[in-house]
Amino acid sequence: DPVSRTLLALYLGMFIVEVSGAHSAWDLPAPQALALGASHALAVFGEGRYETLVTASFLHVGVVHVAFDALLVWQAGPVVERAIGSGRMAPIALAAGAVGNLLSATRGWLANLPVMAAGGTGALAGLLAAGCVVALRDGGWRRRRRPETGALLRWLAVVFAAGLVSRLTGQTLDTATLVGGALGGAAMGALWRRPLASSRASAWALAASAAVLLACIALVAVRDRADRFATMPVERRLEFTADAVLDGRCGDAADGLRSLDRLRVPVSTVSSLRAQVEASCGRVPAAAAPISPPR
Fold it and tell me: What is the pTM of this model?
């Protein structure tokens, strides 16, 4: 079960990186999360941070979060991998996670909420949904396949139950990510009609998945270095701009305002700050119009 083991290693390895930077196993502060590739709804569309739709699936907000996903991969991953094959599992994990994060980001963008997504549960929901679809298409209702299909369905139910509990208790598991991931995985399971017939085809699928992930990680690193606002949530950008005005750093204040414009922060939130900047530094041209998702 190479993909299951790789996912488990990535989850635990990234969590060690998170803990070493945040100095806490219980929470991941927003700046550190963004620096490592968490998906911020307003930045995805306002600043084109689409690579984070992929990288966010490998981060976790606290030890409880990573423990749940690690347990899910350890217990259900091999069942999914046997059902859909290693060559299918890797691309479905990436695509389902990205679709789940995209749905979460779209919801946040349309509601103008600074929603941040991190976690592999959406990708895992997609893998389980894909496994269920493939198993059912392959005669999963027959007696010899019922235990495998039943196990996939039970784990998928556990994931959605955890999402419901998380929502009711105000925790970090985003139900939009779960729904999007499950729908994306189910669609891929339904549309991927031919199995990967050779070990070479599976190897190419795994290599392509690894290349996509590495490219997204590299893009996050480049954006972190090139854009000083990349790791700043809305609250930190507001603070940065206010401090720049007080210190007389007009260029920084203008850059801060433009960064808030890109995120489409409500006028009511920045109106007084904009007035302070323009009173001290002159009029600040608006940032380029962000790219909105289809309505």
Answer: 0.89
